[in-house]
Amino acid sequence: MDIKLLGVTKSYGSNAVLVSTDLIFKAGEVTSLLGPSGSGKTTLLNIIAGLTQPSSGRVFIGDKDVTALPVEERKVGYVFQSHALFPHLNVASNVEFSLRVQGISKQLRRQKAQELLKLVDLTGFEDRPVDTLSGGQRQRVAIARALAAEPSILLLDEPLSALDPELRSRIRMDLKLLLDRLGLPTVLVTHDREDAFALSHRIALLHQGSVIQQGTPEEVYRQPVSEAAARLLGPAITLPHTSGYSFCRPEDLLLAKPGDPVLFEMVVERAIFHGAYWRVSGHAQGQQMQADLVDVSDVSPGKRLPLKLKASQAQSNPSRLAVCTA
Amino acid sequence: MPSILLALALVIGGAIVLPVAFLVAESFQSPGGGPTTWAHYLEVLSSKYYLGSLGATLLFCSATAALATLLAIPGAQWMAKRRSGSSLLRMLCQANFAFSGVVYGMLVVTLLGNAGVVSLLEAWAFGTDFSRGYVYTTGGLAIGYLGFQTPRAALLLAQALERVDPQLLAAARVLGATRAQRFLLVTLPQIARPLLVTFLAIAMMSMASFGTALLVARTIDIFPLLIYREFTGFGEINRAAAMGVILAICCVALEVMARRATGSSHVRTRIVKSSRISN
Questions:
Q1: B186 and B56 in one domain?
Q2: Assigned domain for B73 exists
Q3: Per-residue pLDDT for A315 more than 70?
Q4: Which domain CATH number covers B154?
Q5: Is a pLDDT exceeding 80 seen at residue A54?
Q6: Which alpha helices (H) appear in chain A, and where do they start and end?
Q7: Least CB–CB distance from B175: residue in A81, A98, A162
Q8: Residue B125: inside a domain
Q9: Nearest CA of chain A to the CA of B94: how many Å?
Q10: Fewer Cβ in 10 A, N or C end of chain B?
């Protein structure tokens, strides 16, 4: 079942939080809403859930217009950033909550909770108080609780932001496997591009309340439509272009050998060793830039490094704004 | 820091410990400065009149405090959610502290006394006089008590309700809970302990006050009122002191019992923190 947003806007007084937004979330796909704080990501998620009413526009779940439908009747699964587990209930009771409010018998509730806890690999945790769980476990309980209502769409608000950095990559992979297994249309809010790349089939970039680009992770990374879109997904270097400008990424640059065409001569300001490469920061042609260089020996500050584009990125092409099409 | 602690100790000592010590010492004194005696306690505890008054007071104050705590919930929620008019409501509740029990007694007499507004309206509209003098019944006394208990309970509860994580309520909504289910299944368990604390605070406050009872109590002998009469009317200072100590002990016992009763039900209050969660 697809989810459609048509011309959705949201304003608080004169402050426009969302500007006319059209989006489609396809069945079986995970779509990330990626943007900085204040870009309207969570507002958009709350509009889909029904927790916030749009100022204008319509929300469809399948063919049904749910814009005016109360949140209680929308059948959406929502995993909150803080997980919002009920602290006075144990794991099973949290998972059963939606069934309890529907008046389903205790026996059926418990059976369903056990099935869902098995799905999220938490069998045996039924009677545990939620405050004894780890961050990853709490997240899985929150997902199981959201799934108990048999939602038509799953909404995840910054699902990994509460986790320690070292846990994050492991939980990210667990979540990826789980979302693939569920096959539900899923909308995920994040400001972390690694989360978006790892978990999503599609990414919608939000900037100042507008969707500025959407596409597959590779499309939005490789072919940003604007400087704002390019910089949302990491360091970007502006390249002069006859019909405007384009961008490349730090990993697209190489140290030019004698005789190679030199794109930039970067003055090194600092360099950090990352094991497989050096991330060198500096400036050239009036802009700050970064380059991830492998075959470099001297990266002392003040050193001038001649840089070129990788061969695969250097072929010239198009008139449209795209990464490394200079 | 030590000087602050010293100042605090002096204030507590001067305002609470010392007077209580004198009160206890006074309660063991024989009239006219005779030897130390338990006589005043035995006198009170063996008297049907005093014990009956004590029991009725505890029951009446507990019952009205419980009712006031429940009645305060809607207003407290209104204030906690900062809905329109909540500032005015908070101000009115706070103004309640400026009114003594006697003033509440006067207000309730104005409303439900022999020539009260309600009585006059009833006579004018129906030609009957059922509500005439209602203020002097137990029900009328209860209305007087509820008048000063409910706003105070609302202020105390509003603070607890403000701390209930709104995301828990949003989560319950998304999971399909109706407004009533959200209150019963999410809010109420979150404020169970504050509800108890509010009930106890209001009950204690009621047991200590007698201004309203002074004006309108005809059916119940409110114990603090008896203490007042012993002290000012009969000059029985030692007996009044013993009665005061007994009332204080009863209040503490009530609190301990209430806390024990609810402590076994695994009521937990917690503010969900959005801090980082480690594995």
A1: yes
A2: yes
A3: no
A4: 1.10.3720.10
A5: yes
A6: 41-49, 91-101, 106-119, 135-148, 165-182, 193-199, 217-222, 227-232, 311-314
A7: A98
A8: no
A9: 32
A10: N
| Angle ∠(A164,A165,A167) on CA atoms, nearest 5 | 70
Task: Tell me whether residue B24 is in a domain.
Answer: yes
Interface pTM, i.e. ipTM: 0.80
Q: Which residues of chain B have pLDDT under 70?
A: 1, 262-279
- Identify whether A229 is part of a domain: no
* Predicted local confidence at residue A313, as pLDDT: 57
Q: Determine, yes or no, domain membership for A292.
A: yes
d(CA B188, CA B170): 15
Residue A97 with chain B: CB contacts under 8 Å: 172, 175, 177, 185
Of A314 and A57, the one with more pLDDT: A57
- Write down the residue that tokens 């299944």 correspond to: B185
Query: Which secondary-structure segment (H or E) carries B115?
Result: none
- Are A8 and A65 found together in one domain? yes
- Domain boundaries, position A35: 3-222
pLDDT at A14 over 90: no
Both structure tokens of B192: 């169970």
- Looking at the structure, do residues B207 and B221 belong to the same domain, yes or no? yes
- Domain with B13, as residue range(s), is 1-37
Residues 146-175 of B with CB under 8 A from A: 165, 167-168, 170-175
> Is the pTM for the entire model greater than 0.90?
no
Do B176 and A149 make contact, defined as CB atoms within 8 angstroms? Answer: yes
Q: In the predicted model, what is the mean pLDDT of chain A?
A: 87
The total number of structural domains that make up chain B: 2
State whether residue A91 is helix, strand or coil: helix
CA A283 → CA A212, A269, A296, B53, distances in Å?
28, 8, 17, 88
Of A72, A88, A148, the CB nearest to B177: A72
Average pLDDT, stretch A73-95? 93
> Are residue B171 and residue B47 in the same domain, yes or no?
yes
Residue B225 lies in a domain: yes
Verify whether the Cβ–Cβ distance A84 to B171 is below 8 Å. Answer: yes
Which residue in chain B has the smallest CA separation from A98?
B175
Inter-chain residue contact A167 with B178, CB threshold 8 Å:
no
The pLDDT value given to residue B1: 65
Q: Output the domain CATH number for residue A305.
A: 2.40.50.140
Q: What is the pLDDT of residues A95-147, one digit of tens each?
A: 999 999 999 999 999 999 999 999 888 999 999 999 999 888 898 899 899 99
* A132 located within any domain: yes
Give the C-alpha distances (Å, rounded to integers) separating A242 from A283, A319, A326: 22, 8, 8
Longest Cα–Cα distance of chain B, Å, equals 74
Domain boundary among the residues A162, A189, A222 is at A222
The two structure tokens encoding residue B76: 């407290």
Chain B contact set for A148 (CB, 8 A):
175
pLDDT at position A134: 87
Based on the fold, state whether residues B170 and B210 are members of the same structural domain: yes
In a shared domain, residues B73 and B197: yes
Report the range of poorest mean pLDDT among A24-28, A45-49, A104-108: A24-28
Asked if B74 and B23 sit in the same domain, the reply is no
Task: Assess whether A118 and A248 both reside in one domain.
Answer: no
* Per-residue pLDDT reduced to its tens digit, A223-233: 888 888 888 88
**Same domain? B4 vs B92:** no
Contact A182, A175 (CB under 8 A): no
Question: Who contacts B84 (Cβ-Cβ below 8 Å, separation ≥6)?
Answer: none
Residue B153 sits in the same domain as residue B28: no
What's the confidence (pLDDT) of residue A112?
Answer: 93
